[in-house]
Design brief:
Length: 181
């Protein structure tokens, strides 16, 4: 048996464990929200009967472990649930009061998000590759040290201190190699 199979199996088990942990944590967050989620959905003018009805509709009257099991079951079935923000407190069946499906909300926003992401990626690629090539040509063989320094400062400015440290280390190695020649 290939050692890669064992590696892949361990990684897959780790992935399953992490995803399960995330599911449990996200399901457990709703009861941890300050205040009463049903009261937040109903609003300040809701009657006690309306709040109780919302609590039953949303399954908030069940024990937390049962809510988590219901959440994971719905998620496994492809349902992300319904938005609390569009829930109606009116009378009638739950299907008429239930908020807009979260999958519909996400689907409506995916085209604009994808367009923004693709435009951002294109701009970053053009500027990053073009700028890198330009500054690489300008500063090759140690020419234009000031331009190299300016480019380095600009590219490291939003980075973490660890990136700046790596740059200092690489510069010190470069200078020690050039002085040993």
């Amino acid at each position: 048996m290939s050692p890669w199979f064992g590696f892949a199996a361990r990684r897959l088990l780790g992935l399953v464990a992490v995803l399960f942990g995330l599911l449990v944590l996200t399901a457990a967050m709703i009861p941890l929200i300050p205040g009463d989620a049903a009261l937040n959905v109903a609003g300040p003018d809701a009657t006690k009967a309306q709040v109780d009805q919302i609590r039953r509709d949303l399954g908030l009257d069940e024990p937390v472990p049962q809510q988590i099991v219901d959440y994971i079951t719905r998620l496994a079935g492809g349902s992300l649930g319904y938005s609390y923000l569009s829930y109606s407190t009116g009378s009638g069946p739950i299907s008429a009061r239930r908020g807009q499906a979260v999958t519909d909300i996400i689907a409506a926003r995916v085209p604009n998000s994808a367009q923004l992401a693709l435009i951002s990626l294109a701009v970053c690629l053009v500027l990053g590759i073009g700028g890198g090539l330009l500054f690489g040509v300008l500063t090759r063989e140690g020419r234009h040290r000031r331009i190299e320094l300016a480019f380095t400062v600009i590219t490291l400015s939003p980075s973490s201190p660890a990136s700046a440290h790596r740059y200092r280390v690489s510069c010190s190695r470069r200078s020690s190699r050039s002085s040993s020649r």
